[in-house]
Amino acid sequence: MVAGLKVAKDPEDIALYAGMLFSSFSFCQTLTVMHWGRLSDRIGRRPVLLFGLTGYLVSFLLFGVSRSFAWALAARCLNGLMAGNVVVIKSAFAEVSDDTNRARIMALLPLIWNVGSAAGATVGGLFADPVRQYPRWFGHSQLFRTFPYLLPCLIGCSVTACGLAMGVFMLEETLVRKPASQLARSPPASQGLPATESSQLLPAKAPQQRTVRQLLTPTVALVMATSAVSSLTMAMGQQAYPIFAASDVAIG
Fold it and tell me: For burial by CB atoms within 10 Å, which of 109, 153, 189, 242 has the most?
């Protein structure tokens, strides 16, 4: 795609621009993922998940119709900005599970992610530039001749649209909060009791949100560092092989 956009003046520069496209998603996701999590604490998991899926769908379409590197980069950045669903999904999973099944439910997340990654890469490779790959079927399509990378994005959009429809009609809110009036009201049974006994009957106050510094305990920091190293090695492999496979033998 980078070669087709003709942004690289030299074949050796294709890897640089491809890396920019690849990393822009993660960079923008890092900027907003915590904000999406906090927003879901205020308005609920369901609206944030639905909004994120809508953002995915729009950004996929914009990426598919990109005809310049700047447009493609902007679409990838928008995709990353909307990618706060990853943390909200984990929160929703934790809220619908308990100690007896939480580990098994959480294990489904990397399983589904890997299945989707394999399927997405396959769809991208098989259906990119269909006019050239399948001239018998798409040789007369002016749409895919103008936008050679639209077809795999449309397939991805169809999957996202199915998820969005399921979310609208089937997904229930998992974040349960007590009404403020219930938290502020004291139970009638507490009247006339000693202060120590009365305080035990009062409903618990809403937990206050902790700052990032308070959350970064040594254990959390160690887990984050381990995850960062793991993500770095995975990203290097995922990015290096497609560039290697697409590069001409003459340039190594």
Answer: 153
pLDDT tens, 209-237? 677 778 788 898 899 899 889 888 888 88
What six digits make up the tokens of 31?
């900027």
Instruction: Give which of 70, 79, 74 is closest to 2, Cα–Cα.
Output: 70
Cβ-contact 127, 1 below 8 angstroms = no
87-107 confidence digits (pLDDT tens): 899 899 999 999 899 989 988
Give the separation between CA 15 and CA 94, rounded to whole angstroms. 39
Residue 16 neighbours by CB distance under 10 Å: 13
Question: With 90 as the cut, is the pLDDT of residue 167 above it?
Answer: yes
The tokens describing 232, both together, are 């770095």
Tokens 């909004």 appear where?
51
pLDDT, tens digit, 9 for 90 and up, residues 45-69: 999 999 999 999 999 999 999 999 9
Pair 82, 59: CB distance under 8 Å:
yes
CB burial string 53-86: b at 16+ within 10 A, e below: bebbbbbbbbbbebeebeebbbbbbbbbbbbbbe
Residue 229 and residue 27: Cα distance in Å, rounded? 16
